[in-house]
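Sorry to interrupt, but I need a hand with the structure work. Could you add the entry underneath, on a fresh line?
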Amino acid sequence: MITARKLGKSFGEKRVLRGVDLDLVRGGFAVVTGPNGSGKTTLLRICAGLALPSDGELRVEAERAQVGYLGHEPLVYRELTALENLELYGRLYRVPERRERIGMVLERFGLWDVRHERVGSYSRGMTQRLALCRVLLHDPALLVLDEPYTALDAQGVELLHAQLAELRGERTFLVSTHDPAGVEPFATAQVALA
């Protein structure tokens, strides 16, 4: 699904990535680790098609509409309800049977009962759960998740673990984390950035 050779990225004089190689097979689960500032987010943004590399070669065998990207920002509208947010994203991605799919992801992440509340009233953990709903709504082939456990409480972590376990092997994952032990059972590959 993803092949990278000697991938590099510079912002002006500052080099963020240098010589990164990655082979992620379809159905694989790659975990990206490294300290803050090592380029994890930059690598994920490049693989998701949101940034271009400065050096090297990259091949991603998924069209943009087949990629689900979770970044540091949840990319949901605070003035809209959870239902309205997912309805908007469902229309943008032309999700078939959109209402059923929206109900399913909201239920799966424990947000069904608060679906009519504005996201601005949500806690950070609830907003992260909604962001995960947004990412999964269009059933992407490639999931690029940058620190997906951020702000999740114990129940949120459990729900995310269950979702990863269910989709493992069916979808391809590229996940960055500061806690690789949490996703170690799912990992088929690891990229350690210095």
